[in-house]
Design goal:
Structural class: mainly beta
Oligomer: single chain
Largest sheet: 30 strands, antiparallel
Distance between the termini: 116 Å
CATH architecture of one domain: Sandwich
Number of helices: 3
Strand content: over 45%
CATH class of one domain: Mainly Beta
Number of strands: 54
């Protein structure tokens, strides 16, 4: 009994004097009498607060916030050890901190939280911790966190930092803003269990969403170390745009020496506006720069602006082949969100500069554009005023530049305004019927300030010397009605008034012996009108091949024909014409020159001759119903044989000769399940030619020829083939793969090759297959064009060419492509480009080659796709040798 029992003595507390704590026992005031004689003036009264305050400060609570926890299996609290155990799908929320794990232990005595996964005999280690705080997510094997100091030790953590991921064996978390890691891997690979590459960080400091600063770091490829490394490194991780240096590319060119291209600096000015400055330098003195800006305001507008300039020097000063040339290019694109202002819109698409810019530019970002022979721009603002009638106006500035002829046409600006259609005689209620109720009129005005100049005078004051300005007012009056139920008739008259500020005057100069034309500035105007009417109908024809009890492949053909006859009258406005007499040396009138003072205007001259003509046109459409290959289909399949087959001509009643116009024929169709698009056209002249190959007023059939003489013809075909054509659920329609521009060579931007790789969405869709797919994906695009000319018995093929472009996907990661063409008439290949690409998961490798022509060059590239490591690359190129 003495061995197994323990006794405790009870201590009796010492009795203390009982203190009455009742509030009524505490005097509210104390009176002190200083004299035996009661004197109220000498009485001192001290008030005492009825609320007693403790001078000892209470201790801080162990936890400064409410702890919320859940678990699937159990939550057990050991009161003696002051520990809380959570098991299976455990979760803790403590302020901004959230921990999810298979097992969590909270030690209230040491203010520590330990989280780890749980081990299952079947699934292994599962429910690894997920630690989240202040938007940072860490996925370690286990974690030890101190709630008081907010420090933590994290074992084998996986943390997303910007576009990359940091995998660290041991991470010391100082606070939610600073981490220290040891023996970590930084990679942008998607397979984190076996990354194809990583940068090993021996020691590093991580500031989430800001930066990673490392010590010695080098590149590993599939756990094999490489000598590519740095003694220290800095990886920016800001989620916002940050300013920084743009690493250039380097190389050598035969006639300009060594060079650096696309070196620069990126300015992250604000969330709505940025700026990138690039520069090129060649050791022979050539240089160039470009500035690119992107701006955007959500739900309002977005756009980009770029300016490029190059100062090109060939050879060296003092040599006979020395030359110097400056070229520039300005591009601006602006689009407005449709929700910003439904009644008004502003847009811009500008591409202007030197005509030789794309041909002579040394920067390879312009390589794919050197085939361009036109530059075009348009800046417009439009506004709509709702109401009855509706009023619209627009102001547009346009620019068109031919880089071969260096001719530039501009309108600064063009103003267009219109008032909606008005039916003055229509009933207030119900539909409009008859010729009277359908009478309607409109009003439109167009004003232009047109400039025609050359490349050498562009942006100089001389370009405005020959500017032409004018306005044109148009008021059409129309009506339409039906006759004999099936014929539609329309009639219209048009009033036209032209205001011009450019006129001419012609006079005979006896000293020079010729008629002299002088330009006049000042306001002048003329007015014209005309009348036209047309009659048309639609005729349907159906021919059935199938009889009762038969099931033929072709069941029926439907022919839709739309004939139309029109009549036009244009009065003669000869009052606007004058005559200049040419006087010979004897003082006699030798000849007369007729002219109109409006020859120098924008909108032409009023018609001098009376015109009364009739137009004839026929539009045809052919469709067929065939047996559907799908045996479950209940209805025949409809196919289009001819999209259109049109014929048109006209007859001039007022003409004294050659009254018939040539017959113009055009047509088009789709073949081979809409894979091939065919368009054709021809011009047929009924009149014959004389011995000098000029048209004469005699029909060709009367001259011993055929009914019509073929003067011109053209044929264009485009064909698209693909290994995916047999799939029924294709996302794109047939017209998406028959565009002519798809046959042209690819425009490669060598300064940003990382962005050419597949996007994240495409990578997610490309799931690797365990079996080899013997059907290699491929695509082929063909374009064929031929033009025939015989207007003056030349009987020649004016142009004849074939273009093709194809791509073959040798494997899900390998693709090969070629774009080229052959000029059949001149017997030579057109611009040719070979290319291949290898998808190396996080890396991308590409090679492009232009084997011949003045732009022969090649470029090899291998680099990381991620923009954060885009400067980790190898690039080798041969630029085209250009002579200015």
């Amino acid at each position: 009994m003495f061995i197994n029992m323990i006794g405790f003595a009870q201590e009796f507390p010492v009795k203390k004097e009982i203190v009455n704590n009742k509030r009524d026992s505490i005097p509210k005031s104390i009176t002190i009498i200083t004299d035996s004689i009661l004197d109220t003036k000498n009485i001192i009264i001290k008030e005492q607060d009825s609320t007693l305050q403790d001078s000892i400060k209470p201790k801080n609570e162990i936890l400064t916030d409410i702890v919320k926890y859940t678990s699937a299996d159990y939550a057990s609290f050991n009161k003696k050890k002051q520990k809380l155990y959570l098991y299976n799908e455990a979760e803790i929320n403590y302020g901004e901190m959230n921990i999810k794990a298979g097992s969590i232990t909270i030690d209230l005595s040491t203010d520590e939280v330990y989280a780890k996964g749980i081990t299952d005999s079947i699934e292994g280690y599962t429910q690894a911790p997920i630690f989240t705080q202040a938007g940072n997510v860490v996925e370690p094997d286990s974690i030890l966190f101190n709630t008081k100091t907010e420090k933590a030790l994290i074992y084998h953590s996986v943390t997303e930092q910007g576009e990359g991921t940091v995998i660290a064996n041991i991470t010391k978390r100082v606070n939610d803003s600073v981490y220290f890691i040891k023996d970590a891997k930084y990679t942008t690979a998607t397979d984190l269990d076996d990354p194809e590459y990583y940068i090993k960080l021996r020691k590093a400091k991580v500031v989430p969403k800001k930066k990673i600063v490392t010590g010695l770091a080098n590149l590993f490829i599939y756990d094999v170390p490489t000598p590519i490394g740095l003694p220290f490194g800095f990886f920016p991780q800001s989620e916002k745009q940050t300013s920084g240096i743009i690493i250039p590319s380097f190389g050598e060119q035969n006639d300009r020496g060594y060079f650096l291209q696309n070196m620069g600096y990126y300015f992250a000015i604000s969330d709505y506006f940025d700026l990138a400055i690039y520069g090129d330098y060649y050791t022979n003195g050539s240089y160039g720069f470009r500035a690119e800006n992107t701006y955007a305001v959500r739900y309002k507008f977005r756009g980009n602006l770029s300016f490029r300039y190059e100062n090109l020097i060939t050879s060296e000063r003092g040599f006979p082949d020395y030359s110097r040339n400056t070229i520039y290019n300005l591009r601006w694109s602006h689009s407005q969100d449709s929700k910003a202002s439904p009644s008004s819109r502003f847009s811009a698409s500008v591409n202007l500069g030197s005509s030789t810019y794309y041909r002579n530019s040394l920067n390879q970002i312009n390589t794919g554009n050197f085939l361009n022979n036109t530059l075009a721009s348009s800046v417009s603002y439009s506004k709509t005023f709702q109401g009855e009638p509706q009023v619209n106006f627009s102001v547009t500035a346009t620019h068109s530049q031919n880089t071969n002829t260096e001719q530039i046409n501009m309108t600064l600006p063009t103003f267009q305004g219109s008032v909606g259609r008005i039916y003055p005689l229509a009933p207030k209620n119900g539909s409009k019927k008859g010729i009277i109720q359908n009478i309607n009129l409109q009003y439109s005005v167009r004003g232009e300030n047109r400039i025609q100049t050359t490349d050498s005078l562009f942006f100089k004051k001389e370009m405005f010397d020959d500017a032409k300005t004018g306005l044109q007012h148009t008021i059409p009056l129309n009506t339409n009605f039906k006759i004999f139920k099936y014929f539609s008739v329309s009639a219209s008259t048009n009033y036209n008034e032209v205001w011009t500020f450019n006129t001419v005057n012609k006079f005979y100069d006896p000293d020079e012996g010729k008629v002299v034309t002088e330009d006049l500035k000042g306001f002048d105007s003329y007015r014209t009108y005309n009348f036209s009417t047309s009659l048309g109908t639609t005729v349907y024809g159906m021919y059935n091949f199938e009889e009762e009890g038969e099931d033929r492949a072709i069941k029926a053909i439907r022919h839709v024909m739309r004939p139309s006859i029109s009549y036009n009258i244009n009065p003669a406005f000869d009052k606007y014409y004058e005559t200049v007499e040419v006087i010979n040396a004897d003082g006699q009138t030798e000849s007369e020159v007729e002219f109109s003072r409006f020859e120098g205007g924008l909108f032409g001259v009023p018609g001098k001759n009376f015109s009364s003509s009739m137009g004839i046109s026929i539009a045809n459409n052919l469709e067929a119903k065939v047996r559907d290959k799908d045996s479950t289909a209940t209805e025949p399949k409809k196919i289009v044989l001819l999209n259109n087959l049109n014929f048109s001509t006209s007859y001039n009643f007022a003409g004294d000769s050659l009254q018939w116009s040539p017959v113009r024929m055009s047509g088009g169709t789709q073949l081979f399940n809409n894979k091939m698009s065919v368009n054709f056209g021809a011009t047929l002249d009924p009149y014959a030619l004389d011995n000098n190959n000029n048209r004469i007023d005699k029909f060709n059939i009367e001259n011993g020829g055929s009914l019509f003489r073929l003067t011109s013809a053209n044929l264009t075909m485009s064909y698209s083939l693909s290994s995916k054509d047999n799939k029924k659920d294709r996302d794109q329609g047939p017209e998406a793969s028959n565009r002519p521009e798809d046959v042209l060579p690819k425009n490669l931007d060598f300064s940003n090759q990382q962005i050419d790789g597949p996007g994240e969405e495409e990578q997610e869709e490309q799931k690797p297959s365990e079996l080899y797919n013997y059907k290699i994906p491929w695509s082929l695009r063909l374009a064929y064009a031929v033009n025939y000319s015989n207007s003056r018995r030349q009987n020649e093929i004016s142009s004849h060419s074939l273009m093709f472009s194809g791509d073959v996907e040798l494997s899900p990661k390998w693709s090969v492509g070629v774009s080229s063409g052959y000029d059949i008439k001149n017997q030579g290949f057109t611009y040719t480009q070979f290319r291949f690409e290898r998808d190396l998961l996080s890396w991308r490798m590409s090679f492009s080659w232009v084997p011949f022509s003045a732009r022969s060059s090649w470029n090899f590239f291998i680099g990381i796709k991620s923009s954060i490591l885009k400067d980790l690359k190898y690039e080798k190129r041969r630029q085209p040798d250009q002579q200015l």
